[in-house]
């Protein structure tokens, strides 16, 4: 029996009963194959033992180890300090993440995104922050992922836009010069009192501002050219009536326009329109002549026409109308204006002198009693020698087509029907005309007139002269408007 002989047992000893007694008193050890406390079990060769059961070998070393293990477990299991610390740590890490912790999540994830780190690693680094475990941080992020991601993206976009916008001081303003010919002919207007014209001093060329820019002439601006900025600012009207200029410089048949005259002109019309917005352009010119008599009403009207952008805008603002500039879009933007060839050569002013800037205005200063809207029978140069080409309605441009010479002729003919044309408002001028020619609106005709006012008024004057000559040759006296197919009862006799 596993090395034991029958003589080794006392008389009356029963092996089976002794084995059952030992198994009831001793704890059953683990039968794990890695348990070094147990020796391999050997089958029992004794015939009185059950062959399906096994008997462990008990030795003193195994018993000592079991006693030490049991005493160690008892000491640790019943230590109250360790149990309390473990309970407090578990309780502290179980507090849920709240909305007040979102800024910390956004800050950590935003930093991770910039460093190209994973969100998982960033959230693991939050373990223990604000008393929350890493798993609770992850759970909160997953529950509010859309909201937090939107917040992060907004922060990134804000930073990108801030970096894109350079500071104002760092912006280098470079103006692209307009295309101008290197040389332009300089022609002086023929007058009896004019002196021999001197050649204009060439405008010096400015060198390259950068290495990549080309050396081109700088843009040249003068009073006869439109303002570079289309957004003209209306000056505030004065609080009292402005004083007329005291410095008068004679020139030609009249007086020269000075800077004081120009300033007084704008201040006066702003002041008068503030008092009475119903005043017309002709009324204002007459008032200007009364207030500053060194320029006639006709001269003030000519000054207005030569610099019409700002005064027209002041007048439109006083009436509550919208001033239409050259760059504004209207309902007829698809109607490009046809550039008409002219027979007269363009006149270029000498940029070195300002004596000729106001000659067209100053020549009429001596005619103080002449009404501003009356026809001028004076010398118009080569225009009087040119025959008027008459057009029909069928030759006018249609909707969507460019303006033609026929449009200019019909608009001038329409203006020639009215004796007080300059006193009329834009609505009175073109509302009836647009009803007659419905291919364009009244607003489009008004803008076309504004761009071609000088040509239309010149042709209007020639049409009225032509009618007078025709009537005088027949020995009759007829109002020009009656010959232009307008009911005479609506007009003032000329």
UniProtKB/TrEMBL annotation:
In this chain, composition skew of type Polar residues spans 470-494
Q: Where is this region: Disordered?
A: 1-56, 159-254, 321-401, 464-494
For bias type Acidic residues, the affected ranges are 324-336, 353-366, 373-385
Q: Pro residues bias: where?
A: 235-247
Bias kind Low complexity: ranges? 14-27, 47-56
Source superkingdom = Eukaryota
Instruction: Give residue spans, biased composition: Basic and acidic residues.
Output: 159-176
Q: What is this protein called?
A: Uncharacterized protein
